[in-house]
Write a structure and sequence with these properties.
Layout (H helix, E strand, L loop, with lengths): L6 H10 L4 E2 L8 H10 L6 H21 L7 E6 L5 H13 L3 E6 L3 H14 L4 E2 L6 H8 L5 E6 L9 H12 L7 E7 L4 H7 L6 H17 L8 E8 L4 E8 L3 E5 L4 E5 L4 E8 L3 H10 L2 E8 L5 E8 L3
Parallel strand pairs: 1-11, 2-3, 2-5, 3-4, 5-6
Antiparallel strand pairs: 6-13, 7-8, 8-11, 9-10, 12-13
Helix pairs in contact: 2-9, 3-4
Length: 320
C-alpha cells in the first residue's frame, strides 16, 4: 500500500498508468533542467528567444506604456517562469526609466535559477525592488488573488504553448480571475511559420534539447529512487502543422523494466514505446483573439518581430 506520495510521485504514478503514457513538462525544470533550458535559448535553431528579445528592443517603450496602470500609481510586475530574466531585463530597464515605482516579483520553481536571477538583478539594476517567489504556477496564481494594488503579469517565451486546449483555457481563466480593470497580462505566443524551422527548434543538432528531455528521467532517478537507464532511452519530437503542435517524447529503445522505489512499483516498457513529455503549440493572431475571449480576456494590443515569428500580446479582463 502506497502511503502519502509527493506531488511528483503522484504525477508519475498517474502518468505511467495511462495509455499512452505521459509525463508533464512542468517537471523538466529542476536546477539542472533550468540550466539546460538556458543553453537551449542560445541555440541557433531556437528562434523564439531571439524573436521576443527583438520585440522588446524595438517596442520596449510601447510595451511598458501598455502595462503601466493609467493613474501613475505604484504596482507589481509579476513574471511567471522568470528563468534568467534575460529578455525581461530589457523591459525592466524601460519601466525603471519611465516610472512610476513598481516591484518586480519573479516566479520560478527552481530555487537555483531564482538565486542567480536575484543576484544578477541586484548587480545590474540596483534600483529595482525585487520580491522573488519560488513556487509553481498553481501556487503563484492563488497568491495573485491576494496581491495588493495594481499588477501586470508576464508569461513570456512560448510557455503558453505547453498547455493543451483545455488546460490552456483553465490557466488563462485563472490568470483572468484576479485582474482588476486596470491590470494587464503580457503573454508570448509563438506563431505559425515554416514547419521545418519549428521542428528544428525542438531537435537541435547539438543534442541539448534531447539532454533537457532526458534530464526528466535523471530527476526521477534522484528524487523517486527510479532506475531508468538513460542509455536505453532517446528523445524524439515532431511537428504537425495541421494542429500547430510540436510533440516531444521519450522513447524506450528496448524492452525493459524500471523500478520506482517511491511508488513501490515496477513498470514494463516495450521496445519503442513512447512516453509523451511535452506539447508546444503554435498560433495565429485570430486564434489568439478567440482563445482570449473564451477565457474572459480581451486583446488590448500586440507586438511582433519583423519576421512575424512571434507575438507578445497585451491582454486585460473583458469589459462588462
Amino acid at each position: 500500500m502506497i502511503n502519502v506520495l509527493s506531488e511528483l510521485a503522484q504525477h508519475v504514478a498517474d502518468g505511467l498508468h495511462r495509455t499512452p503514457r505521459a509525463l508533464s513538462s512542468m517537471y523538466f525544470y529542476d536546477d539542472a533542467g533550468s540550466r539546460l533550458f538556458q543553453q537551449i535559448m542560445e541555440l541557433p535553431e531556437y528562434y523564439p528567444t531571439r524573436a521576443e528579445s527583438a520585440i522588446f528592443r524595438a517596442h520596449g517603450a510601447a510595451i511598458a506604456a501598455a502595462l503601466r496602470p493609467p493613474v501613475g500609481e505604484s504596482y507589481a510586475l509579476v513574471e511567471l517562469g522568470a528563468g534568467d530574466g534575460a529578455k525581461t531585463k530589457l523591459l525592466l530597464r524601460e519601466l525603471l526609466r519611465t516610472g512610476p515605482s513598481f516591484t518586480y516579483a519573479p516566479v520560478d520553481i527552481s530555487a537555483g535559477a531564482m538565486t542567480g536571477l536575484v543576484a544578477a538583478l541586484h548587480h545590474e539594476l540596483p534600483a529595482l525592488n525585487v520580491a522573488p517567489v519560488v513556487e509553481d504556477y498553481a501556487t503563484a496564481l492563488r497568491q495573485l488573488r491576494d496581491w495588493p494594488g495594481s499588477k501586470a503579469v508576464l508569461f513570456l517565451g512560448s510557455n503558453i504553448g505547453n498547455f493543451g486546449a483545455a488546460e490552456r483555457l483553465d490557466f488563462l481563466r485563472q490568470l483572468a480571475a484576479p485582474l482588476a480593470p486596470a491590470d494587464r497580462l503580457l503573454i508570448g505566443f509563438d506563431l505559425h511559420k515554416d514547419p521545418r524551422r519549428i521542428r528544428a527548434a525542438y531537435d537541435d543538432a547539438q543534442g541539448i534539447t534531447a539532454a533537457f528531455n532526458l534530464n526528466l528521467l535523471t530527476r526521477l532517478n534522484r528524487e523517486l529512487g527510479a532506475d531508468f537507464d538513460l542509455a536505453h532511452w532517446q528523445h524524439y519530437t515532431d511537428y504537425n502543422p495541421l494542429d500547430g503542435a510540436v510533440r516531444s517524447y521519450l522513447v524506450s529503445t528496448r524492452a525493459q523494466q524500471v523500478r520506482i522505489t517511491a511508488l513501490e512499483e515496477t513498470f514494463d516498457f516495450a521496445a519503442w514505446e513512447v512516453v509523451h513529455t511535452e506539447n508546444s503549440y503554435k498560433f495565429t493572431l485570430p486564434q489568439i483573439k478567440k482563445i482570449a475571449a473564451e477565457a474572459g480576456l480581451r486583446v488590448v494590443t500586440y507586438f511582433t518581430d519583423a519576421a512575424g515569428d512571434f507575438a507578445d500580446v497585451v491582454l486585460a479582463a473583458q469589459e462588462e
